[in-house]
Design brief:
Elements: H1 3-28, H2 31-41, H3 48-67, H4 75-89, H5 97-108, H6 113-130, H7 133-140, H8 153-166
């Protein structure tokens, strides 16, 4: 057989197989089950526009954390960034930081809620020790003062998330 004949035969077999599969699915009533399985297993990352939004969001948050002095080499940096991404996606996390947000982050990073809380607190402390009064004024206006001391984890996360929202930074 020539190469051309093989290709023709291959296409004929392909059509037969496709028809048989189609008929089997229709006759068995499995189409709904197949669609449900696909929908259950498909996560939001398959959509290129959603993936691009997540990349932009991560970039905006990273730049903001750099600007307020959070050191990227700390584990808390990653946890804070993840927390902000989660809060921007689902604002209710701000009302359940200890019982909702920390455990979710811990699960993703194979840690515990207490470790996540401690790492975030440590990163905020490190940033606060080197932050300038001007930066505090810019981001933490009317919420925290340099004299009062560092913000709590919740205060810090809230201020950063609100800054992104209020300034219409396209992070989500």
């Amino acid at each position: 057989m020539s190469t051309n004949e093989n290709e023709v035969r291959r296409e004929e077999i392909k059509k037969i197989v496709e028809e048989r599969i189609k008929r089997f699915i229709e006759e068995s009533g499995m189409i709904d089950e197949i669609v449900n399985v696909i929908l259950e297993q498909t996560d939001e990352n398959w959509d290129p526009s959603t993936k691009n939004q997540k990349i932009r969001q991560k970039k905006v948050i990273t730049e903001l954390l750099y600007e307020v002095g959070v050191v990227p080499s700390t584990l808390g940096f990653e946890y804070i960034r993840e927390a902000l991404m989660m809060i921007l996606k689902e604002p209710n996390y701000m009302h359940e930081v200890t019982k909702g947000l920390y455990p979710q982050i811990a699960q993703k990073y194979d840690s515990t809620g207490a470790r996540v809380e401690r790492a975030i607190r440590h990163s905020i402390e490190m940033a606060w020790n080197k932050i300038s009064p001007e930066t505090i004024e810019k981001y933490f206006v009317n919420t925290v003062s340099y004299q009062k001391g560092k913000p709590t984890n919740s205060e810090f996360l809230y201020v950063m998330a609100e800054y992104i929202r209020l300034h219409n930074i396209q992070a989500y």
